Amino acid sequence: MWNQKKTQNERIFNKRREALVDELVSKGIQDERVLKAFAEVPRHKFIDTALSHRAYEDSALPIEMGQTISQPFTVAKQTELMDVEPGDKVLEIGTGSGYQAAILCAMGAKVYSIERHQILYDRSRDILKQLGYRAELKCGDGTVGWSAYAPYDAIVVTAGAPVVPEALKAQLEINGRLVVPVGDESKQAMYRITRHGDDDFEEERFSIFKFVPLIGKEGWSK
Ligand code: SAH
User: Fold this and answer.
1) What are the pLDDT digits (tens) for 143-164?
2) Cβ–ligand 1 contact at 183 (below 6 Å)
3) Which atom of ligand 1 is nearest to the CA of 143?
4) Global pTM value
């Protein structure tokens, strides 16, 4: 009986997940690799069960420590801008729920992710492991990057930064992409920095988003 109910719920989640993918397409997401990952990764597993009925709405939802799992459109847009190929080495700053890390794993990237809150680090490590996504996680300040595994083909910052962190630019591979929201604490423009040479960086700016603050050495102070 219980198992039957569980299967029924999974079926409902699958349907809603398909509808979310259609919604992302209607909002302009085109990268098939991104859409395929969204069709696969069970977002409802990355949030509190009390909220799982809202898992496939295109909205940010609260997680612990006053943080949020980003809006699906935002995750999709950042991932599309990163232009991830299978096998790419990717660094994420702000693991949060672990959902963005799972999307990147589903796309075949080798994923490294840093979270400053121990409790979120513990939770995301457990859920990613349980679902079979192999990401290397670390608890600490991600604004200084993770030099041990640098350089990266792509870096994504999933919290709002006051400036582009220099340490992250320095850890980009040639042709690497850094996607980071930059602005004040109420809104940020999405930046993509592409490294063309040792000291040759191209900066593009995209639309406005609203993220929780990036806190750390090259972020906001507490
Ligand atoms: N990518 C996440 C989004 C979480 S919200 C997801 O898919 O759920 C952003 C996260 O960044 C929060 O969990 C916050 O604690 C974390 N964060 C903020 N500043 C940070 C820093 N300097 N280093 C690492 N994590 C940071």
Assistant:
1) 999 999 999 999 999 999 999 9
2) no
3) 22
4) 0.97
**Residue 221, in any domain of the structure:** no
* Percent of the chain surpassing pLDDT 70: 99
Choose the catalytic residue: 26, 52, 59, 70: 70
Domains contained in the chain, number:
1
**pLDDT for 107:** 98
Q: Is 59 a catalytic residue?
A: no
Residue 116's domain comprises 60-209
Domain assignment present for 103: yes
CATH number of domain containing 128: 3.40.50.150
Tokens of 38: 């969204």
